[in-house]
Amino acid sequence: MKETLLVKHAVGGRTFIDTGKQSVEYKLEQSGDNYKFTLSVPPDSNVEEILRWKSELNVFVFYESDDQPTKKVWFYVKDGPVAYDPQNKQLTIVAQSKIEYVPDLFHASV
């Protein structure tokens, strides 16, 4: 199964991190109602922008397999926290809600 993580600006739709285009190690842990992402990334302009827009972030995880439709999980960050540890080169993003869906199952009605 292929897994892709996206970190996006919720309003503008700008993508800051896309593991389908760049190699980024990350882990996801659930703690109660929160979802904590820990990403190993160097300090760069994307990290600066993520911290700047930390109250307007969305995180997506796509699960793709050959025999099933792609499943998307949309995490909304709301109040964070979002922090960067430059010594360990780790970005932490905590989301408070998620929605799981399969895009192929949604059809626009005319």
The sequence of SSEs as H and E is EEEEHEEEEE
DSSP strand tally: 9
- Averaged pLDDT, please? 90
- The end-to-end distance, rounded to whole angstroms, is 34 Å
Strand content: over 45%
SS element count, helices: 1
Shape: globular
CATH architecture: Roll
Account of the protein in words:
- The protein is mainly β and 110 residues long.
- The protein has a single domain (2-105), classed as Pnp Oxidase, Chain A (Roll), CATH 2.30.110.
- It is built from one helix and nine strands.
- It has one helix spanning 45-52, and strands at 2-9, 15-18, 25-31, 34-40, 57-65, 68-76, 82-85, 90-95, 97-101.
- The strands form two sheets. The protein has a five-stranded antiparallel sheet with strand order 2-1-5-6-9, covered by helices on one side. Strands 3-4-8-7 form a four-stranded antiparallel sheet, with helices on one face.
- The longest helix is centred in the middle third of the chain and has 8 residues, at 45-52.
- 16% of the residues are buried.
Per-chain topology:
Layout: E1 2-9, E2 15-18, E3 25-31, E4 34-40, H1 45-52, E5 57-65, E6 68-76, E7 82-85, E8 90-95, E9 97-101
Antiparallel strand pairs: 1-2, 1-5, 3-4, 4-8, 5-6, 6-9, 7-8
